[in-house]
UniProtKB/TrEMBL annotation:
This is Collagen alpha-2(XI) chain. Pfam families: COLFI (PF01410). Trimers composed of three different chains: alpha 1(XI), alpha 2(XI), and alpha 3(XI). Alpha 3(XI) is a post-translational modification of alpha 1(II). Alpha 1(V) can also be found instead of alpha 3(XI)=1(II). The lineage of its organism: Eukaryota, Metazoa, Chordata, Craniata, Vertebrata. InterPro entries: Fib_collagen_C. One of its GO terms (cellular component) is extracellular region. Residues 106-300 form the Fibrillar collagen NC1 domain. Keywords: Calcium, Collagen, Disulfide bond, Extracellular matrix, Glycoprotein, Hydroxylation, Metal-binding, Repeat, Secreted, Signal.
């Protein structure tokens, strides 16, 4: 068993045999713990001394003062925001509002209203210059009651500044028809006001369509011919009754003296239309159109 033997009385300053005793003051306490009989026989090895001193003369110099670390406040999250403080801050803002508050909210709501109107115009276009449709078929789907006539379209759906006016044939299901113009060297295509239609808009009009058709007519008499009428498509394909299955003779007017023969090009290959040139000789040679007239090219979306 472990025993604790307090040392008191005369043995307070008594040393071991052969060693002078040490001078102790009344404020000191020495405790010797003997863990076994063998340990008590060898006090130099097994004795554990604990000295507690309270005498003023034994105190060391004062220690350095350690300053406390600065207190770091945790970052506020959305859940840690105090709603009552937000209400107080809102009430403290003057009636005029700070930048980005009351006045800023009015500006945001105004922008949202404007954006909502633009989206609504895109969803339900009216066919006007300010609210053009992509195609005449889109306009017919939004307003089935509209009659045939001229309306504004914007196939690329970009800025309305490049919108153009076309003839919408709602009777045929909503065809978008563009008018040709003879520029001597080749045909070009214009809107209802005579302004040229850009290549980008024509390209988007093809992409939004599934088929297209165009009529070509020529007189039966008074024309020098070197062969059948040849047409050059927008993709440089040669189109004729002999070479293309999409070219049909719509009406043979040669039975009358002043008649005109009408060919119809109706094709699912939209890159072939509109027709850019027509000739009774080799295409690319000096124009010899011989009274050839082109009708509007109509795209069905």
């Amino acid at each position: 068993m472990t025993s604790f033997t307090p040392l008191a009385g005369p043995s307070w300053t008594q040393g071991r045999e052969g060693h002078p005793g040490s001078s102790r003051t009344p404020g000191e306490l020495q405790v010797r713990a003997c863990f076994s009989d063998c340990a008590c026989r060898f006090p130099l090895i097994s004795s554990l001394s604990l000295t507690l001193s309270t005498h003023p003369s034994t105190q060391g110099p004062p220690g350095e003062v350690i300053q406390p670390l600065p207190i770091q406040m945790p970052k506020k999250t959305r859940r840690s925001v105090d709603g009552s403080r937000l209400m107080q801050e809102d009430e403290a803002i003057p009636a005029g509002g700070a930048p980005g508050s009351a006045g800023g909210l009015e500006e945001i709501f105004g922008s949202l209203d404007s954006l909502r109107e633009e989206i609504e115009q895109m969803r339900r276009p009216t066919g006007t210059q300010d609210s053009p449709a992509r195609t005449c078929q889109d306009l017919k789907l939004c307003h089935p009651e509209l009659p045939d006539g001229e309306y504004w379209v914007d196939p690329n759906q970009g800025c309305a500044r490049d919108a153009f006016r076309v003839f919408c044939n709602f009777t045929a299901g909503g065809e978008t028809c563009v008018t040709p113009r003879d520029d001597v060297t080749q045909f070009s295509y214009v809107d209802s006001e005579g302004s040229p239609i850009g290549v980008v808009q024509l390209t988007f009009l093809r992409l939004l369509s599934v088929s297209a058709h165009q009529d070509v007519s020529y007189p039966c008499l008074g024309v020098a011919r070197e062969g059948p009428l040849k047409l050059r498509g927008a993709n440089e394909d040669e189109l004729s009754l002999e070479t293309s299955p999409y070219v049909k003779e719509f009406r043979d007017g040669c039975q009358t003296q002043q008649g005109r023969t009408v060919l119809e090009v109706r094709t699912p290959v939209l890159e072939q239309l509109p027709v850019l040139d027509a000739s009774f000789s080799d295409l690319g040679a000096p124009p010899r159109r011989g009274g050839v007239l082109l009708g509007p090219v109509c795209f069905m979306g």
